[in-house]
What does this fold into?
Amino acid sequence: MKLSIDKLKPGMRVISEVANLNHAVLLPADTILLAQHLRLLKMWGIDAVEVAEAPSELESPRAAEDLPGELVRQAEAIVSRRMKHVPLAHPAVTLVRDLAIRRAAHGGGAIPA
Amino acid sequence: MIDARTFAQRAGDLPSLPALYYELVEVIGDPDSPVETISNLLQQDQSLALRLLRLANSGFYGFPSDIGTLDEAVQLIGLRELQDLVLATSVIKSFEKVPGHLVDVGSFWRHSIACGLASAMLAEQRHDPVPERFFVGGLLHDIGRLILFLNAPEESRLILDRCEKEERLAQDVEVEVLGFDHAMLGAELIDLWKLPQSLREMVGSHHDPSASPVVFLDAFVVHYADFIVSALEYGKSGEVFVSPLVVPSNRARWLMEDDRIEALVTELDHTCEEVFPILTRERS
It folds into this structure.
């Protein structure tokens, strides 16, 4: 489907190469859009891009469901202590907390020390 | 007790930014400066020039083809952003002497770089016209802590121990011990370095953006990014606990939904891994 620039989101997969008026390829087909690409597309004056309808293969944070319950409980205890000063009333906060638990259950962040 | 401004003015060990940064600001401020003048200036510091080229070619920008020369980088990245990148690399280098027994310096910069990248991504999603300016704000948000580690090591040790033992937030214990916190001190450093006012607000109000009504969004973006990267433990800056997320009721629309925050975290992982060694290691 062809989406206008303001409808594009990071994670979408480009299915037809994006070229400028001189036919120079700016983004090849199969590029997974990053936030930076959206900025570049605006800068290049591109109006619309052909993207796949299905979600991209851009890896999403791994789910906690496939982990042993004990591991998840331990991760929850660690994160709860670290976030003990954070009121959990707002959904945006619980969302980040759930992500933190999933991350801790998988052995910490994805960035190597 | 003294206030943050007096502490910063009296601090014996206060890193300064390189003369090259201020020369660059001057050259960029002159609309008649040709690109070659700017790239020639940057070439004076080969290590800096190399880092800039590597950043230009990294996922931080996501340019689809290689950028081979500084001239190209200057033209593609844009002058304002280039100035910010020079500032970022200069600041990290200027704090090389921070004592390792008080803070893991690598972990400190990992936290700060992640906060900078997340700030720029959040600003991008808010359709800010210049989202990259938030990178420096996020990068510098905890800079006051480094000033404390350098100039008040004993008090810093006391604060760290009390936070751990009493399970309290560092900014609260800092005010008790020193009369000010690291955010206030960081804001004073921004002033002493003659950096823009919006940067002062991002740094000085990163724990309470409502204290910065004029540029609330600027301060809130860094505050929100700091919350996310602290909760997800992208490095550590010397804080044991995550500070609360302050969400004024009329600004709830600025918070992210499930799929968008997951996409942001995934992108943050990739970009951090790439940008961290470029900014922090001499050769890698």
The domain at 4-280 of chain B is CATH 1.10.3210.10 (Hypothetical protein af1432). The CA atoms of residues 96 and 105 of chain B lie 8 Å apart. Residues 258-280 of chain B form the longest helix (23 residues).
